[in-house]
Amino acid sequence: MAEPNETPAMQNPEKDPEDWTTGDEPMTGPQRSYLQTLCREAKEDFDDGLTKAQASKKIEELQAKTGRGKSS
After folding, report:
1. HEC secondary structure over 19-49
2. Would you list the domain boundaries of the chain?
3. Would the pTM count as exceeding 0.85?
4. In whole angstroms, what is the distance from residue 13 CA to residue 38 CA?
5. How many Cα atoms are found within 13 Å in the side-chain-facing hemisphere of 56?
6. Nearest-angstrom CA–CA distance, 29 and 17
7. How far apart are CA 29 and CA 31, in angstroms?
8. Which residue, 38, 43, 44, is CA-closest to 63?
9. Backbone angles phi, psi at 51, to 5 degrees
10. pLDDT, tens digit (0-9, with 9 covering 90-100), for 13-25
11. Tell me: the pLDDT tens digits for 46-57?
12. CB of 36 within 8 A of CB of 28?
């Protein structure tokens, strides 16, 4: 059970990428690298112009498509 003084963000730290304050910034280096790998595996084109939020969503989509990122 959550402590009474914990904020909702502390109880569930995951935020929808649409709600990220930095979501409209260019994707990070690690996002770029992982997304390039996923795109190759999924035989999809890599979009170099994605924002952090867009890259995060694309990574989730391609993880589902390729089977990467699944918990054992």
Report:
1. HCCCCCCECCHHHHHHHHHHHHHHCCCCCCC
2. 24-66
3. no
4. 25
5. 16
6. 17
7. 5
8. 38
9. -85, 175
10. 667 776 767 768 9
11. 999 999 999 999
12. no
The one-letter amino acid code at 54 reads Q
Write the Ramachandran bin of 57: left for phi over 0, alpha for psi from -120 to 50, otherwise beta.
Answer: alpha
CB 30 within 8 A of CB 57: no
Task: For residue 51, give the DSSP letter.
Answer: B
Residue with tokens 């999924």: 42
Q: Distance of CA 47 to CAs 8, 11, 27, 30, 42, Å?
A: 34, 34, 11, 15, 13
41 touches 68 (CB < 8 A)? yes
Distance linking the first and last C-alpha atoms of the chain: 26
Question: Structure tokens of 65?
Answer: 């498509």
